[in-house]
Specification:
There is one protein chain. The longest helix has 13 residues. The protein has 2 domains: 110 residues, Rossmann fold, CATH 3.40.50; 124 residues, Rossmann fold. The chain is α/β, with parallel strands linked by helices and 247 residues long. The protein is elongated. It starts with a strand and ends with a helix. It has 9 helices and 11 strands.
């Protein structure tokens, strides 16, 4: 079956040089973008009920830019002044640079890893005496607390934001040849919005093993999977599928 339309369950790329746009133009395929999930901040009133004292911590661990945004949001809502002595441990250099949005970067103690949490845990070893705060989403990798526990760090997990399903009701009568997913939350959102969803001829594409598992557990047929040795990116996997089916 030919592919004429694709819905990618992510925000539209901000750059015109996105490989999705190149794919659409090259193969004459319509590609739309729509986030199936969105992030909502935990309200200050709700956070107070956890009795977590941000200022009783001497260091913060950031695993994403979203975590940075919500840490400083909640601090502002609670009218807290974060001391200059606070140390920041970031999952990557790019995440560390994002701190410039909120603090004077060169005047603070900032450390970062190579993008892996296991590497960040190693970076933290010289700072074992610190009491760490870990801002997270309600849905987060279990690897984070497991590695911190294993290495014996003193830390507090703070749920500052949640991943929730977007309202997709306007898509009820819209059909696409391929739906592209990047997280189990996207699959959950599909069925929350359309409990009676039947796959029929719709092809499902997904990125990552946990998303693939969620697709199968939902009883859906997985047609396109990435990354693979032949297709390390989702756009490459889609292109290979389109070439094969649009002959």
């Amino acid at each position: 079956m030919k592919v004429r339309s694709i819905l990618v369950s992510q925000p539209e790329p901000s750059t015109t040089k996105s490989p999705y746009f190149e794919l659409a133009e090259k193969h004459g395929v319509k590609i739309d973008f729509r986030p199936f999930i969105q992030v909502e901040g935990v309200a200050a009133k709700e956070f107070r009920q956890t009795r977590i004292q941000i200022l009783s911590h001497s260091a913060v661990i950031f695993t994403s830019r979203t975590a940075i945004d919500h840490f400083f949001r909640i601090s502002q809502e609670l009218r807290l002044t974060i001391p200059d002595s606070m140390k920041y441990f970031c999952i990557s250099e790019a995440t560390a640079f994002y701190l410039q949005k909120y603090i004077v970067y060169r005047k603070r103690k900032i450390f970062y890893a190579d993008g892996r949490f296991s590497d960040l845990v190693n970076v933290m070893k010289k700072h074992k005496e610190e009491k760490f705060l870990v801002p997270l989403s309600d849905i987060h990798k279990q690897e984070i607390p497991e590695l911190l526990d294993k290495e014996g760090y003193k830390y507090t997990k703070a749920i500052l934001y949640r991943t929730v399903s977007s309202d997709l009701s306007d898509l009820a009568d819209v059909n696409y040849d391929i739906l592209v997913f990047f997280s189990p939350s996207g699959i959950k959102s599909l069925f929350q919005n359309f409990p009676e969803f039947k796959q029929n001829e719709t092809r499902i594409a997904c990125f990552g093993p946990t998303t693939a598992q969620a697709v199968r557990e939902a009883g859906l047929r997985l047609d396109i999977e990435a990354p693979t040795a032949q297709a390390p990116s989702m756009t490459m996997a889609l292109e290979q599928y389109i070439k094969k089916n649009n002959k």
